[in-house]
Amino acid sequence: MLELADTSVLGKRSRPAVVAWCPRALVDGQIAVRDIVAMEILTSAQGHAEFLVQEEALAACTWVKVEPADRDRARGVYRELARRPLRHRAVSIPDLLIAAAAERSGLMVVHDDEDDDRSAAVTARPVRWAAPWLPVTGGGLPEGRARACLW
């Protein structure tokens, strides 16, 4: 099943459980990306060589094109979130644009942070965590953050 990946899944500091799932999903053609996800990933490149590796990995994904309706929908969801005390500040603009493209394309957003759960609460669109979120013990992030899915 094709799913639109949020930057939190493909980013440089994914949890080990996500890193274990992600390469299989890439090889199986289950991950789609948007231009804004690619730009967020490429921003983290530590030089030209790493940029090229990341760009090549992203090129293997299915791409969901940007449409004007995505921006309109993202702004509408942002407006709805603003009805709740400061909830619109809890969701990033890139995440809203990713979610709008997924909704229009009939894709589920696969993510590894809470932003998508927050916006999905007002849209009823499907989202899922890339890997089960384990309880925090002793402070810090569950499982820690390790390496990237793509490289």
Protein described:
With about 150 residues, the chain is an alpha/beta fold. It has one domain (about 5-130): Rossmann fold (3-Layer(aba) Sandwich). The protein is built from 7 helices and 5 strands, in the order E-H-H-E-H-H-E-H-H-E-H-E. A 5-stranded parallel sheet has the order 3-2-1-4-5. The two termini are about 25 Å apart. Residues about 135-145 have low confidence and may be disordered.
List the helices and strands and how they pair.
Blueprint: E1 3-5, H1 7-10, H2 16-27, E2 31-33, H3 35-43, H4 48-59, E3 62-63, H5 68-82, H6 93-105, E4 108-111, H7 115-123, E5 127-129
Parallel strand pairs: 1-2, 1-4, 2-3, 4-5
Helix pairs in contact: 3-4, 5-6, 5-7
Indicate the percent of residues in helices.
40-55%
**N-to-C series of helices and strands:** EHHEHHEHHEHE
- Classified by CATH, the class is Alpha Beta
Number of helices: 7
The whole-number mean of residue pLDDT values reads: 81
Which topology does CATH recognise? Rossmann fold
Percentage beta strand: 5-15%
Radius of gyration equals: 15 Å
